[in-house]
Write a structure and sequence with these properties.
Blueprint: H1 5-11, H2 16-19, H3 38-46, H4 61-74, E1 78-82, H5 85-94, E2 102-106, H6 111-123, E3 127-131, E4 147-153, H7 165-174, E5 178-182, E6 200-204, E7 218-222, H8 224-236, H9 243-275, E8 280-284, H10 294-300, E9 307-312, H11 317-325, E10 342-346, H12 351-354, E11 366-370, H13 376-395
Parallel strand pairs: 2-3, 2-4, 4-5, 5-6
Antiparallel strand pairs: 1-7, 6-7, 8-9, 9-11, 10-11
Helix pairs in contact: 1-9, 4-9, 5-6, 11-13
The structure holds pyridoxal-5'-phosphate (PLP).
Modified residues (N6-(pyridoxal phosphate)lysine): 207
Protein name: cysteine-S-conjugate beta-lyase
Pathway: Amino-acid biosynthesis; L-methionine biosynthesis via de novo pathway; L-homocysteine from L-cystathionine: step 1/1
Amino acid sequence: MSEKLDTKYVIAGRSKKWTKGVVNPPVQRASTVVFNTVAEKNHAMVNRAKQTLFYGRRGTETHFALQDAMVELEGGAGCALYPCGTAAIANTILAFVKTGDHILMVDGCYEPTRDYCETVLKRMGIETTYYDPMIGEGIRELIRPNTTVLFTESPCSITMEVQDLPTLSRIAHETDITVILDNTWGAGVNLAPFEHGVDISVQAATKYIVGHSDVMLGTAVANEKHWDQLREQSYLMGQCISPDDAYLAMRGIRTMGVRLKQHEKSSIKVAKWLEAHPLVDHVRHPALASCPGHEFYQRDFKGCNGLFSFVLKQSDTKATTALLDGMTHFSMGYSWGGFESLILANEPRSFNALRTIANPNFKGTLIRVHIGLEDVEDLIHDLEEGLHRYQDALNA
Ligand SMILES: *Cc1c(COP(=O)(O)O)cnc(C)c1O
């Protein structure tokens, strides 16, 4: 499709084949699919991997519509659906490794991704080397004859380093290494994965695709070369999702364009306000020059969203608690990408467990915020009061 992105949000996955005369693809619930003739059954058998009704685990028309929508948004040859983002990551890596292999993992990856490498992959005899997110051309020195996967997440979780994705992909492809991107922050649209050499783009659709903090969902969109293997591996691992969740994900997509624009506008405003605050050491927002890899953000991304971090000048648990406990609009909670604002703090020592070779060694507490769709002045006021409480607790 050649339509502009704002149009794609509206039309993605809504071909007449799935909608059949209503606006939204209906929720089709099924385990058993019934055939009237042997010929029908045989046709379904032959085409079961090609969006033809066969058996519930292979998906129903609601799932096919969402798969189409994801491919129309991200590009690629096909989309596998998973019950959460973590399942998408685990199953995508598993599809391209075997015992004795070695994988490269960005040091700033989402924490459960690291835990998966250190437990499941390790037990299977697959070794992981963590690389500095800013390594660029240096990745070449870490590649071994048995390296089969390069997994990246840009920007990194919590510390927000943006990476030189085209360089990493180009070098990985010199030796046929599969490049997997956790594209949750880019929401599959602000970073077009296949334009930057990625083979498979994975998302926690739980975040911006769903957009309302009420569904767990994972997606993996693969290019032509990797699609068959990814699809069959996911199928054999029994990965499938409810059609109601698929429906809600498509509902989320319809408003994702306007939501992302609002998250972007408000988060940049809040980030700039924080940057000027005397208690703040620096802000890690990919759209601001103070963020490591900002130049790659400017070159490769089409926009940003509501998630970023800022680092305070000091680490003081009592003062941080005073800040967090009194917030009005920011709730403490995991996940992000919904309409609401969220806040979480990380003390510098917590990065000892989260980073192997690229610990930023912050002096002060890192606070990660998700800027929701509330009025931005209300959010700034909330943070201002919180930083007052922080200062008062420091003085006490
Ligand atoms: C939340 C998140 C995940 C995991 O998604 P779940 O749906 O919560 O399992 C993976 N990667 C990133 C970057 C995330 O933020």
